[in-house]
Protein 1
Amino acid sequence: QIVLVSGHLDSWDVGQGAMDDGGGAFISWEALSLIKDLGLRPKRTLRLVLWTGEEQGGIGAEQYYQLHKENISNFDIVMESDEGTFQPSGLGFTGNAKAREIVKEIMTLLQPINVTDVYDDADGTDIDFWMRDGVPGASLRDDLSKYFWFHHSQGDTMTVQDPNQMNLCAAVWTVVSYVIADMEEMLPR
């Protein structure tokens, strides 16, 4: 059984794509690194996917989906961060009411960093295939007030990334992915 965390590596040919969507790739990698460094071993597999071809119509995600859809019942949740890594506020979530209640309870663990909101609907080109087939999905929600200052521009460089905000985003991704991966049962569908 798999809990999938992800971001995509490709960007437009201007700028470096550090914020869109390098930030999502960074925090996904960091989440798994933190879990490993803490010596935690969840009941389910945590899988990191660094998508390619998102800007070209999600061709990397479609290929991955085609290769793994026969095991769709083993995918517990698919998580994608693709809206920058600014000050986080919570998660967008797509799934049934029972699963939403579980995710809301998990988010209460993040009260110390004031990131507890659960919004309607996860967003993510790379996880859409899975969510359309009923797999619960989550996307990081954060402060988008500066997102379009840099999105697909020459200004999208590493200097956009605030280490403190990225650490908070990684904390959200780590807690949510680990707790779901270590629950007794998969999220209800």
Protein 2
Amino acid sequence: YHAQPSQGTEQEKMDYALNNKRRVIRLVLQWAALYGDLLQEDEAAMAFLEEFYVSVSDDTRMIAALKEQLPELEKIVKQVSEEPKAPQKKHKVLLQLFNASDDRAQKRQPIRGTDEVLFKVYCIDQTYTTIRVPVSSSVKEVISAVADKLGSGEGLIIVKMSSGG
């Protein structure tokens, strides 16, 4: 964050420092936006964010051009630090629907509410289990099935993950 070129005029050194600082701030903002809920559980990450915010605040006194990024950084730091911490550790669960049979896909039959689908349930500790639920199941019913399978329903959340690739 504080890299300085060893050569060049004072203006070139300031431009270089400003561009590097902006890049680092953007990177930290993206990191915090993507992993905010995980960061609140990590004391070192929280300490880093707070220290980084103070450092950027100090730098805005000398480099006025950084002031434009300060409110966004402040918002992220406050948002991550103010989120309520659950008394118990959350179980982050990712559900992935997969085909029970390739034959069914080839026959192209209409899906009925009584049909069952199989979900892979991924836990934060890199393990997974499977559950079978009717297509017409509500989110509450899916969470209940997961809680029954895992033996605990405390702190369960459903995360939908998709990929353009």
Protein 3
Amino acid sequence: EKRTMALIEKNGYHDSVYVNAAKIFQGIHTEKRKDGIWVRYGDDSPSPALTFKDEYSQRVSYELAFSALKYQDLLEEILLASCAYPCQSIPDELTSLLVVMLYDLQHRKFQAREIFDEEPPVAEVRKIEHYLYSFRTKLAAALARCRIGHDALSIEYILPETIRKQEQRASALPLCVWINTLKINLQDVFMDLKKKGFTRVESVSDFDRYMYCVDQHCHDVLFFPSSLKEELLSLDLFADCKLLLQ
């Protein structure tokens, strides 16, 4: 299941991921007026408890929610400029779902999601998905106008400079990985990584593309170059929870 999730991440997520991401976003967003219109997210009643299938679903749900939060102003601007919001057929309680799914849709360059049948469909997710996709041309045009207005090559450049610098620093940090010694021993991990083309070095200062090192104080902790995140998560070691991304 985790292998399948890793493969479909770039083509969208399961319905349950969007539902959980919307619940998380509902609790952390800031409600404000845009162009004289309140973008409303429903009442402040406690959201139902989050239910995750596995650690991978939990991770991507939080990533999607916080990505939407980071670009909340831009996403709301796109919705208003495209006239996709407000919409009488979409209640305020689904605005969070609308925003997180819009972030994912633009991240996929407004391409349709590939639907997988491992989970039952969620009616609200399919409704919002169909609605956004019907507006995809206007949404893409609104995004393009925003980028032109900010003289930005991509949406990352629309963020305040302080946030961009924080992200650049964070992206440069090595990935920290725990070895799950309940499932595999250290030597087998080293052998498996060697077969996959990874070279063990002494420290992060020696890093090149496919290299890793062992923490000097915790021998069940490994460090990898940050650029390898997606490739690492597709390895069997991660899919089988023998390695855990910190």
